[in-house]
Known about the structure:
This protein starts with a helix and ends in a 5-residue tail after the last helix. 49% of the residues lie in helices and 25% in strands. Strands 1, 2, 3, 4, 5, 6, 7 and 8 form an 8-stranded mixed beta sheet that branches. It is an alpha+beta fold. It is built from 5 helices and 8 strands.
Amino acid sequence: MILICLLLGIVLFIVGFLLLPTKRQRFIGGGLGLLLLVAMATLMIGNDNWHWGMHHVTTTKTVKIASISPSKKVNLLVYQPIRQADKERVYVYRLAGQTTQRHTAASVKLRNRVRYQAVSQAKLTTATTRWTYNNGAWRWLFSWTGQHRNLVRRQNTFTLPTSWSTLSTRQAKWLAKAVASKEAAAKQATTKAVTAAVSAAKQAQPTLTTAQLAAVKTKAERAAQQQAQQQTATVLASLLKQAKAQPVK
Length: 249
């Protein structure tokens, strides 16, 4: 509507000073047109530069997220550095119960923050701040100008359990390879331990039946798995430390 008022001011200003028959009418008509033109132009400049008639409105949305690590033993939030690795990052995550990976936007109006708390569920809270008009009159006046609902800023806050870690995509790839290598080595060690236990039982008692050998094998497998599980936390902690020491990009 302000565009229409501005156009009316221009028309009234031109018509008033050039086409009205008397000097008094030209002065009044042209003066009113000039006042309307100046008032509308001032309001447009004020709204465009200082957002007259507007205020901030912030909406908040929280969703549950899950780790994108291929290993269930490691919970990760992964980011891709942009230009300055310590300031500009795109975080990669997925919603709980979904397999599709998502990522935050790369924008100067977006700020990402990661914090660790004693919680059981990781979550992402997005606070979005936009401009909105103070009331219907202001919105009616500035309709068609494109200022309403313009984005001011957006902040993503990742709240993670203390058991989670945050790595860059390069560090996460290194960790995935290291975990796979350790798991393969552990599986091989378990197989050797079970084979050695069965062989030792045969040598000690050559008369063992097939069922008895199966029982020996099962017991050896359980013992080897328990030992591997006890070592898992220490191994993962060591690998995570090494992963964080890798180059970010």
